[in-house]
Automatic annotation (TrEMBL):
This is YbjN domain-containing protein. The lineage of its organism: Bacteria, Pseudomonadati, Pseudomonadota, Alphaproteobacteria, Caulobacterales. The keyword Signal applies. Keywords: Signal. It comes from the Bacteria. Residues 1-29 form the signal peptide.
Length: 188
């Protein structure tokens, strides 16, 4: 199974228009002050809405879990499992941030490979630890701030980036076999 969430591209111009208003007039030429920016009624996403959205885009998602003050769901995507942790949540389980997280353990996990990843890749932070059983672990994470009023579809691009880079990271540390380059076509 491959999760392919719907994409909703947001250009720099759209971001600027949303943040500063759609007017292009110089400040001195404006006749009335701009309306104040209002906070959306729900400044995040509910845990249930995120879980339901993940299921709607094809993920196999476990039940909502709570442990040691953390709220999370486990996701199975093909032969990789990962977790969505919910952060900055209020008492109604509306959260202002999520963190995608996965743990890899295999003989290819080394401190050097994790450091190489962090040096060469902007997204997905990784760190290396030795587990209780003395096996090396690579933990990779990706944090997302939730914008109020945009709904769960704002997770589409972030989830797609996470899934694609998770596979790249898994290949980098030897969890997945690297795909050999295609052989050139025979000359005629």
């Amino acid at each position: 199974m491959r999760i392919v969430p719907p994409s909703r591209p947001l250009t720099l111009m759209a971001l600027m228009a949303a943040a500063f208003g759609a007017t292009a007039l110089p400040a001195a030429a404006q006749t009335a002050p701009a309306a104040p920016v209002t906070q959306a009624a729900e400044p995040g996403l509910s845990v249930t809405a995120v879980r339901d959205w993940l299921i709607s885009v094809g993920a196999q998602v476990g039940e909502i879990q709570r442990q040691d003050g953390e709220t999370f769901v486990q996701v199975t995507d093909g032969n990789v499992g990962w977790t969505v942790l919910f952060n900055a949540c209020d008492t109604a389980d509306v959260c202002g941030a999520v963190q995608f997280s996965a743990v890899f353990t295999n003989p290819g996990v080394t401190l050097e490979k994790v450091n190489d990843w962090n040096r060469d890749h902007r997204f997905l932070k990784a760190f290396y630890i030795v587990g209780d059983d003395a096996k090396p672990l690579a933990i990779v994470q990706y944090d997302v701030l939730i914008m109020g009023g945009l709904g769960v579809d704002q997770l589409g691009d972030h989830t797609l980036l996470w899934v694609e880079l998770l596979e790249t990271f898994g290949t980098h540390i030897g969890y997945f076999a690297a795909t050999p380059p295609a052989a050139p076509a025979p000359a005629q």
